[in-house]
Amino acid sequence: ELGKLEMFQNLRTFLLKGVIYLVPQPKPPHDTAVSLAEAWLRGVFAGGHYLRIQMGFDVGTENDPGPDIAVVTGGPRDYATRTPATAALIVE
């Protein structure tokens, strides 16, 4: 496992179709857009949904994306031992 070898320590990466991509640090306009989207989505998806902000999302064994926002059913404790694989909405 590459993480154990510390090859990507302090680097933001994601895996897509077997290719590792380096991701630049978000800039203020991106951070602002994510914050505004999160605030709006909290009003749209009230009870029964949980907004995961820049957390893992399981789309299969070859991919490891971390979308900006994933609106999933349930709450934080529902994902204490697993990564969600379905979502009501993904924002990237």
Defining key terms:
3-stranded antiparallel beta sheet, alpha+beta, 92 residues, two-stranded antiparallel sheet
Structural class: alpha+beta
Main beta sheet, described? 3 strands, antiparallel
Order of helices and strands: EEHEEE
The total of helices stands at 1
Shape: globular
Overall helicity: 10-25%
* C-alpha termini separation: 27 Å
Mean pLDDT: 86
Descriptive overview:
It is a single chain. By secondary structure, the chain is α+β, with helices and mostly antiparallel strands. Helix content is 18%, strand content 23%. It is built from one helix and five strands; from the N terminus they run E-E-H-E-E-E. The chain has one helix at 28-44; strands at 13-16, 19-22, 49-53, 69-73, 89-91. Strands 3-4-5 form a three-stranded antiparallel sheet, with helices on one face. The protein has a two-stranded antiparallel sheet with strand order 1-2. The two termini are 27 Å apart. The relative contact order is 0.18. The model has no long low-confidence stretch (mean pLDDT 86).
